[in-house]
Amino acid sequence: MISGSNKRLEGKIALVTGGGRGIGAAIANMLARLGAAVFICGRNQSDLETTAHTIASAGGRCEAVPCDLNDLKSVEQLAGVIQKRGPVDILVNNAGIGAFGGPLHALDPAAWDKVLNTNLRGVFYTVRAFAPMMIEKRSGDIINISSLAGKNPLPSGAAYAASKWGLNGLSYSIAEELRQHNIRVTVLCPGSVNTDLSPHEGKDPERMLQPEDVAHVVEMLVTQEPRSFVSEVLIRPTQKP
């Protein structure tokens, strides 16, 4: 059960995109344990409902709302649903997809569009929808889950890398735009995490980063003292997998 002794986010409203499984589910669970009212969104209703049920069974608050981040109207509808409860205090842009297994010149343009639209355009849409609420409240945390692929070359995954390099640049830029409104923006770049996002041939899952490791860093970010913020975090496993 969720303990009431450490509910440092009591009274806060959080949104986690791609919150139905993997990293997003781990982050949603952590935020709920800290007392936040958590919304999770994505396109797989079954995954969303499973995570929301798990959180509720532990005594947390979580609501699953379907949303297609590629569709601005869908994101705006999501914002309307959440705003009935109050402005969002914490926005975690976690949703992401990959396209791996071949060189860029052989990539289907439709796959390129799908990756860039989800990993980059979707973040633009959520910031566009939710940052005004934070500006009005003069507080908020935006955490964009990027990747070390946004720092290093990634052969056979150029579209994914391009989306994450772009997400890093977007994050640094909006951090400067929003800090005057007391809104903190962080880009979080983990290495390979033990999820089904991409193939991990030859890697030991036990040595890889786990979703809970990423959630732990998000916890540190949203509970730090309000006078400061961390603009970027790189996460690597202790031992190479």
Secondary structure blueprint with pairings:
Elements: E1 13-17, H1 22-33, E2 37-42, H2 45-57, E3 61-66, H3 72-83, E4 90-93, H4 109-137, E5 140-145, H5 158-178, E6 183-190, H6 211-222, E7 232-235
Parallel strand pairs: 1-2, 1-4, 2-3, 4-5, 5-6, 6-7
Helix pairs in contact: 1-6, 3-4, 4-5
Can you offer a commentary on this structure?
There is one protein chain. The protein is an alpha/beta fold and 241 residues long. It has one domain: Rossmann fold, CATH 3.40.50.720. 41% of the residues lie in helices and 16% in strands. It has helices spanning 22-33, 45-57, 72-83, 109-137, 158-178, 211-222, and strands at residues 13-17, 37-42, 61-66, 90-93, 140-145, 183-190, 232-235. A seven-stranded parallel β-sheet has the order 3-2-1-4-5-6-7, with helices on both faces. Helix 4 (109-137) links the parallel strand 4 (90-93) and strand 5. The protein is globular and about 45 Å long.
List keywords for this structure.
241 residues, 7 strands, alpha/beta, globular, seven-stranded parallel sheet
N-to-C span: 33 Å
State the name of the first-level CATH class.
Alpha Beta
Helix content: 40-55%
Report strand order across the widest sheet: 3-2-1-4-5-6-7
Low-confidence stretches: none
Label the CATH architecture.
3-Layer(aba) Sandwich
The CATH topology is: Rossmann fold
Beta-strand residue fraction: 15-25%
- Biggest sheet descriptor: 7 strands, parallel
Question: Short summary of the structure?
Answer:
This protein is an alpha/beta fold and 241 residues long.
